[in-house]
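Hi P.,

Sorry for the delay on this. The queue was packed all week, but I finally got your sequence through. Input first:
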Amino acid sequence: MADRLYLANQSDTIFSALKYESKMEKNAWARIAFALSLCKTGKEVGLSSDTAGESMRETSFYSEFELLIKSLIRMVYQRVDIADDEFFSSKSIIKNHIDNGSTLIEKMYLQNGKSIDNLLTALAKEVNFGGRQESYGQMFDLYLGKTVLNKKDLIMELNNNAIHPNSHLAIMGSPGVGKTQFLLKLLTDIRRGSSYQTNFIYFDYKGDVVDNEKFIELSKTQVYRMLQDGQVLPVNPFVLPDYSDQSISLSAREKAESFSSINSKLGAVQKGTLSEVIKAAYEHRSDKEIRYPDFNEVYDLAVLSYQMNNKKDDTLIEVLRDLSDFNLFWSHGDDIPPIDKLSNRTLLVDLHKMPVLKELVVYLIIERLYKEMSVLPDSPIQNGRRTIRTILVIDEAHNYLSQKNIFLQKIIREGRSKGVVVFFASQSPDDYQQDFFDFQSLLEFAYIFQSRGVSPSAIQDILGCSGKTARDLQVEISHLEPFQAICKGIDKTEEFVKFTAEAFYKSY
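Then the structure:
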């Protein structure tokens, strides 16, 4: 695999001149040239055989944008089978676009009066990929494994709108019985089957997945390790679709409810204080280019409010201090911009090193995803298949299901029409029996691995089987072998199906 490419002599000359005029490095201009060419010329770009210019290292060109750049190439070329040397070498797609893009930039530079400022303004208008290109009606018929009884292939038609009212899914079982391997297999199938157009956001609660390099590579997932190596999740929970007084007031109240649902020590007075502080933080930024605050600003205003009212620090201040000190989310002044749309990204958020605030971090990200989802147009349907845009994956879901997460509930209820799906992984069917929300009836797909002490009523609710069958299955489920699972019957002649689940490591 090549670790460098050689520019055309003309490209090298152009980038050198632009570096002198703009003080921007050559690798930055190379990325701009690549993006301009990919956008304007696309896959019709000509071959560039001139290698007389300066070399450019792979790491210098990609920087932190490798995943984005490769995804853009796959989208434009409508290919998923692109080898590394095809991406980056002296005979590569990137090389062709850099050299082609350099001539396009030179032309624009001359057309804009040889002004760098005018050139950059013109480039910002030109390079627009029109947002995410959806793969309409992609068929997700996923191989689950073989039935135990007759060794037949078991297929899940995940997004068959004519058969299934939604695509929400739950995988249940004790630790070590194969449910994570099964989940990773499904997610990888979906990513590859959609040409990486269907995204997921995965909350890794125990750190079981973050070090699975093969899964990360095959699913093309961006990993964020919270409280490790100074990593920050480039997400701002205060971003809103609009910044009207009504939207700000509603968001402030919702944030206060979120905090109190996670931390029972936050009472009505503290919720009211937090709501007012958040509104004040938005007001503080009302005349600034960036309208949304960060947790540092909210914390500072909360401390000021407490000081003005002669109040001692309490749980609210402690939580806000942790959010500010731990630097978990994007803050003003960070080197990289915040993620514009979560729903367009495939992310794994590793939470296992966090001593506190795990649930709150998850809650805030789910809230942000819901607000994005709420303004999306309905997900297109083609040939009876609804387009799935994003999958929210909640591992160790038993830690969250007992909490009254209003945004999770809204995604489950409303996500179908928007192409947003929830995948749960938890330890038992009992986890979904909550008085405040009917999870069971909204889970279209459920896979029960070995679990002990499961109540018959939970089995009945999850599988939709008779009470007698549920009681019989109670013992059966407790004695399932690793990778064996039980799911709903495929047709009306059977109440359930027992099968051997396919593992990620066997498929990939």
